[in-house]
Amino acid sequence: MRPEKSLPHADEFASADDYVEQLLHYVASTPVFQVLCGGVHIMDFYTSDPGLFYSVVPADWQAFLLDRAPMELLDFLLRDDVKTAMDAATKDGRVPPPASLVQYVRDVRRFSLQRNVLSKAATETTKLPRKITMGMNVKKIHEVTQFSAYVDRLADAVSEGAPTTPITHLVDVGSGQNYLGRALASKSPGGPKDATSDKSNRKGRRRGVVAVESKGHNIAGAKGLDMMTGVMAAPARPMRNKKLYQQMLSEKSGNAKQTEKARNRIARSGGAESEGAGENGVSQDKNADAKGAEEAEETEETEETEETEETARAKAPKPPSTIETDMRSRNEIAAEAYAQIQQKQREHKEQTSQASSATESDNLIQYVEGRLENGDLSHVLSQVQPLRQGDDDDDDADAAAINSDVPSSFLTVSIHSCGNLSHYGLRALELNPDVRAVAIVGCCYNLLTERLGPPTYKVPGMRPRPTLQPVNGRVMREEERRDPEGFPMSARFASYAPRDIANAEQGIRFNITARMMACQAPANWTEADSESFFTRHFYRAILQRIFLDRGVLQRVRLEGQAEDEEGAAVSPIIIGSLRKACYTSLPAYVRGAVAKIAAQGNGNGTASSAENAAVNAAVAEKMADLTDADLDDYNVRYGNARRRRELSAVWSLMAFSAGVVESAIVADRWQYLREQQARGLVRDCWVESVFSYDQSPRNLVVVGIRGEGEGEERLPDS
């Protein structure tokens, strides 16, 4: 189960610890990397002259970058052999790549964790039944298929290593629509017979799925899919005597007259049929339902005969001694009959309450609604019901009973848990003794909080740029955001400072721009994709210049900074998504963005705060007289092929370099588990690829297995 390497690093590193040490030094001491990973923002690209390209890109790189089309540059950065590319450029008479750029490309490649190495077991994964993949797209099917099989193998391995505390439940943090949990439940022994046709999957111990989700509508949708796919049995359809039910309702409300036929039906229903009727006449017992249905049919068949007999008896004279008169009204008689039915129903519920509690252990999926704020899952785990062990087809009652002697043990898992949710899942191994292992695939690094505060880049040749907050965004200074749950997790990453740099900043920090770029997948970009988002970035960069020129925004400088453009920045304005038609041309984009900003606020056309109202008013006022001729002038100044290539080159370099940012975030999570391993709380930990990169770029799973306590000997690194 465990891969050869604890981290999927390049072969030139002697060990995972050697890789981490060199990675930390590179990230903390390489100015070009720091500039491209968080030191620049695309919105500042045209707010200075001659442009950001000439300020941040080394001079000896510029000619080569401008000589390459976007896809040619991506091939050079990601795929081509750099030595071969140098020789080919010299032979063709084109600008060759400079030596410093070649070295930079080599460094980024070797410090980026290997992402396309899948184990043999992963490549032989069996497809999920079509029912289970209901609602999934191609990407999600690949992820759920691969990861559910991986989790099964991991749970089996952990259970074999600790037979006294086998994994009984899989806790999915951030379950969403519970696609993963549904697939895991379908593989469990004792699951619904139509959930999977592979009988080999139904051998071994049952495992429950605990789906933890903060949004109630996601849970409701997931339960519906559970029943549609057969993973969870749908509730039985109620059976009722409709004629009796309608008669009881009408008599209870006093809105209808009781006929002789109805009184006879009520009198006959006082037996087993009444016992089976629930609230509002709904049957709670299948045997009672069947008996009531049979009696209803018999009533219809003999109705005419009974009515004739009753008429004859009514006409025949009766001795006065045999006649009993009930002086109550019809409504009172019906109310008494209804009360008797309700009383019998309450008795029936009391008799079946224990059986109902026992059947909760048959549910393979349990949903817990709540928002996690840290790695303490005690409030979630305390709600988990024990599972009934044994085969559903086994006639032995003891084999199908709940095995209370085996304590519940948990494996915490997640596919693409956003931001700090990945940290909570990993910390669960430390904070919850019943959690035996974790397997977390992270995503959305831009949503991570910062443990040490924002970075300050003191790059030679560039003044420090202020860390900015959107002028119409949430009011919170990043300098004050020091979340103990944020990045970095490990003590080593939080305290590292390069020894060969005087007054170096302590700790590894990545601002939101760097973390956002780490979510990119440049190796998967096609020419059409590249052209599309480069065009969007180009329009947004020009709009930022228009805002600056028309006084909507002002330059922001650090305290004491001189009144020049170098090192200054312009605060961004959040726009969000626009209609597809807005990206057809620069005028369409600007008009659409201005219209949205002028009306935006809390989403219903009104400003959500005084700051937002001021920004919205400024945009509406100062952009009102912008003409198409003005926009054409901006397009001429910045829309030529050279200026657009400047932007695409810097963006490609940023996305390429951010592969190291993601590798550092993943290595930090592994290092955190490694530090728990030194304490004896973790027995083993590793990182490996679980998805194909072309299908799902965020494909690195971080795995940790609990140890037995303090003082356990550390396992040697592979």
Q: Quick one: how many beta strands?
A: 9
Helix vs. strand class:
alpha/beta
Number of helices: 25
Overall 3D form:
globular
Cα separation of the termini = 14 Å
As for the number of domains, it is 3
Q: Tell me the strand percentage band.
A: 5-15%
Rg, alpha carbons: 35 Å
Name the poorly predicted regions.
192-202, 271-307, 353-361, 391-404, 457-464, 466-479, 601-607, 710-718
Average pLDDT for all residues: 78
Q: What profile does the largest beta sheet have?
A: 7 strands, mixed
User: How are strands sequenced across the largest beta sheet?
Assistant: 3-2-1-4-5-9-8
Bin the helical content.
Answer: 40-55%
Walk me through this protein's architecture.
- The chain is α/β, with parallel strands linked by helices and 718 residues long.
- It folds into 3 domains: 16-114 and 448-702, no CATH class; 123-229 and 364-446, Rossmann fold, CATH 3.40.50; 242-360, no CATH class.
- It is 46% helix and 7% strand.
- It has 25 helices and 9 strands.
- Strands 3-2-1-4-5-9-8 form a 7-stranded mixed β-sheet, sandwiched between helices.
- The two termini are 14 Å apart.
